[in-house]
Amino acid sequence: MTDSIGELERQALDAYLAGADEASGELWARAHSESLQRHDRSRAARCVFWIVLDLFNRGEWARGNGWLARGMRVLEAAPECAELGLLLVLSARQHLKQGDVDAAWQASGRAVELAGQFDDAELAIFSRMSLALVQARRGQFPDAAVLFDEIMVSVTVDRVSPIAVGVVYCAVIDVCRSLFDLSRAREWTTALGRWCSTQPHLVAFRGKCLVHRAEIMRFTGAWPEALAEAEQACAWTDTHPNSFKYPAGAAFYELGEIHRLRGDFASAQAAYRRASEHGQVPEPGLALLQMAQGKLETAGASIRRLWSEPHAGVLRGAVLHAAVEILTASGDLAAARTAATELEHFSERYDAPAVRALAAQVVGSVCLAEGDVESALIRLREAWMLWQQLEAPYEAARVRVLLGQVFQHLGDRAAAELEFDTARAVFQRLAAAPDLARVDALRQHSHKVATGSLSARELQIIELIAKGKTNRAIAQQLSISERTVDRHVSNILLKLALPSRSAATAYAYQHGLLSSSG
Predict the structure, then answer these.
(1) Which of 24, 87, 173, 190 could cross-link to 15 by cystine, CB 3.0-4.6 Å?
(2) Whole-number Å distance between alpha carbons of 21 and 27
(3) pLDDT tens by residue, 228-264
């Protein structure tokens, strides 16, 4: 009978790693029942641990909670054991989902105590991972990061189940991403990729690894490789449609991001649609795509709605970044400033280089749009240095474009050209077509070109429009009639082939038509 239980456990493990989730659960359940028949409560409880871990990862919390309660009852009459610690790890996860951080902390702490009492490698790893997750939720990010590194070393040297290895890799990478610890996420994604390559028949975790690798490659500027990895990740959906461990929606979203940045808007639209079909929110990427397509009103409505919704972690940071970009382009500087300020406060909470760089970048861009070029220069230089340290060439190049605009405002055309040329070289290498077009437009339509196309009065008026002034306020400031202002505004839109005041505002910022004064 003992051998038959062991064979069921091996079959359950193989089924799990092969992506046969339901079959794996059934085999663990059979092993659990046979263990109870042999009065081996500890072994029966360990089977419950794998069942519940599987169900929680699928998002089937009701079934998982039912099995967890059963496992706890199984151990009621048994002496303390490592399996109790494993079940407490799952209890901590349940408490975190319910928002009860204190209860999760207590359960994790007790699991760590049991790990110290029993020589069980899997309990040692899972209990520390649970504690680190709770620390991260409590805002103890440095402590959590140190513990995550220790855990990741453990899974490479201790004898633990391949399920434990894969679960820990993916969980730690997810948390590092959520904390904007991109350097650590990149390092452990590389390690996960190496581990997956040693498991030729592995289905579980491989799809998620592909998505993480595509994200990291895009971030580090390896866009052709990122595109190939994202396409492979999306193809995984068709060959493994029933594997819950594969984040199909995230794969299609990442594919959409790469297509959008490269200027293949039709493919991006299709990828975002597939992401939505798989349950992934296709934003803020879709809103940024709408902006790139010239649909500013639609993009503005989308980002305002998304901004008003509660989001946390990476998604909240991405939403705020997109909000600043879209609202600035739409001429709503007050809202853009509010979003930038929220992102700045957000960066203080996470205190990670990536989110600090993002905050400095958006605050600098808003300062530039408002005409405060001195403040813009300080924040943008900070952002550029941080992106350089993180080896993020695309983001660093985008900041250099903003710096070029700052130098245009300051009249230092040589410095502006240097920034534009350096950024252009990066965009060309990445095949970032929209950014290439924008930097070329900035170089061609300099302040002198714009001055030649508009009269002195029209230059005054477009600057005041960009600063949010109404026609009535402009008339009062310039001591002219409101009707005259109306005529000048019409002429400006006609000369520049612009559809609206919002477009005129964006044109003014993009072409350096604002003076350095407030």
Answers:
(1) 24
(2) 10
(3) 989 988 887 666 655 544 578 888 999 999 999 999 9
At 471, the amino acid letter reads: N
- Per-residue b/e over 196-222, b at no fewer than 16 CB within 10 Å? beeeeebbbbbbbbbbbbbbbbbbbbb
Beta strands in 256-405 (DSSP E): none
CA distances from 436 to 423, 427, 439, 443 (A): 9, 6, 5, 11
The answer to whether the beta carbons of residues 56 and 90 sit under 8 Å apart is yes
The answer for residues whose C-beta is within 8 angstroms of residue 374's C-beta and 6 or more apart is 516
CB atoms within 10 A of CB 515: 12
Nearest to 177 by CA among 136, 147, 143, 210: 136
Examine the pLDDT at 450 and tell me if it is beyond 80: no
Prior bond to 284 cis, omega within 30? Answer: yes
Q: Is the dihedral of CA 208, 210, 214, 219 positive or negative?
A: positive
Task: Give the up-direction half-sphere exposure of residue 265: CA atoms within 13 A in the CB hemisphere.
Answer: 12
Q: Convert the pLDDT of each residue in 364-409 to its tens digit.
A: 999 988 878 889 999 999 999 999 998 899 999 999 999 998 888 7
- How far, in Å, CA of 447 to CA of 104, rounded? 59
One-letter identity of residue 183: S
Nearest alpha carbon to residue 23 among 57, 64, 63, 54: 54
Cα separation values, 463 from 443, 445, 471, 517, Å: 20, 16, 12, 11
Q: What is the pLDDT of residues 259-286, one digit of tens each?
A: 999 999 999 999 999 999 988 889 999 9
For helices 265-277 and 248-262, what crossing angle results, to 10°?
Answer: 170
Tokens encoding 223: 């866009």
Q: pTM score, two decimals?
A: 0.72
- The helix or strand, by DSSP H or E, that contains position 287, with its residue range, turns out to be helix 285-292
Rounded distance, CA 398 to CA 201, Å?
A: 42
With helix as H, strand as E and coil as C, how does 20-70 read?
CHHHHHHHHHHHHHHHHHCCCHHHHHHHHHHHHHHHHHHCCHHHHHHHHHH
Tokens (6 digits) for 385: 């240095």
The 10 Å Cβ neighbour count of residue 172 is: 28
